[in-house]
From TrEMBL:
Gene Ontology MF terms in the entry: fructokinase activity; metal ion binding
Protein name, per record: fructokinase
Needed co-factor(s): Mg(2+)
Organism: Qipengyuania pelagi
Keywords, ordered alphabetically: Magnesium, Metal-binding, Zinc
Length: 280
């Protein structure tokens, strides 16, 4: 029996099963402070069959180099109280099993690429409490010096759209600072789904996210960008982003219509399935 945790900014999804394709039980807990969150997770796992391994797909930044002392630690994060916390170590000590770590979006990308079966390259972008991008090339997650943090790149802002400073405590008006759920709420006073269709928010958010998708296609040549997360539950948003990506490209990229914007095949299960893949 293996276990998985998808640790997000507002909630953690826990799971156990024999394989990633045969999840036997899941449970969701709120993401509180580190000690409370780990304690609640361990309590639930104590009610399940014994595990042989755990996959941890967590919000970042997170240490992914096994040779470094900060492997499995949450690094400098905007989430209060979590910077420097040894999340993998706390779980390994509590469950007495090896823990394999990656970002929540890398794990989701891994699961989506596996479910698709027809692509060698895929990016997964989640837009919710934060914005994160995971990247899989030839079946492997891309890490490099650490892991992708595309939520913190700076999109081009429209002329005369400089009054809103953005909400990212590190970068202000990076992509996450302009188009995440908290950014939308701070700027327009409601979630994107709750704002009327006539609100400028819809086109503005689509504009920022389409730039990120086009940048992914242009810099990595991935075949598909999977768009998930709470903000993407807004009706018509994904389709509008795809239209804008086509406009931005202007027929230039050699990948042509092989570059696609799609919804998650696994729905809300992408992240936790990826966590289980890490454990397998």
């Amino acid at each position: 029996m293996i276990g998985g945790i998808e640790a997000g900014g507002t909630k953690c999804v826990l799971a156990v099963g024999e394989t990633p394709d045969s999840i036997a039980a899941t449970h969701t807990i709120p993401t509180r402070n580190p000690d409370e969150t780990v304690a609640e997770a361990l309590d639930w796992f104590s009610t399940q069959p014994s595990l042989t391994a755990l996959g941890l797909a967590t919000f970042g930044p997170v240490g992914l180099d096994r040779e470094r002392a900060d492997y499995g630690h949450i690094l400098a994060t905007p989430k209060p109280g979590w910077s420097g916390f040894d999340l993998a170590g706390a779980l390994a000590d509590g469950l007495h099993v090896p823990v394999t770590v990656d970002t929540d979006v890398n794990a989701a990308a891994l699961a989506e690429a596996r479910a698709d079966g027809s692509v060698r390259s895929l990016a997964y972008m989640t837009v919710g409490t934060g914005i994160g991008v995971g990247l899989v090339i030839d079946g492997r997650c891309v890490h490099g010096a650490a892991h992708p943090e595309m939520g913190h790149y700076y999109p081009r802002r429209p002329v005369h759209d400089d009054a809103f400073a953005g909400v990212c405590p590190f970068h202000g008006d990076c992509l996450e600072g302009l188009a995440s759920g908290p950014a939308i709420l701070a700027r327009w006073g409601a979630t994107l789904s709750d704002l009327p269709e006539t609100s400028a928010a819809h086109e503005r958010v689509a504009h920022y996210l389409s730039q990120a998708c086009h940048t992914l296609f242009a810099t990595t040549s991935v075949e598909k960008v999977v768009l998930g997360g709470g903000v993407l539950q807004t009706p018509g948003l994904r389709e509008r982003i795809a239209e804008l990506v086509t406009e931005l490209d202007a027929g230039y990229l050699p990948g042509g219509n092989r570059h696609q914007i799609i919804a998650p095949r696994l729905g809300q299960m992408s992240g936790i399935t990826g966590a289980m893949i890490l454990a397998a």
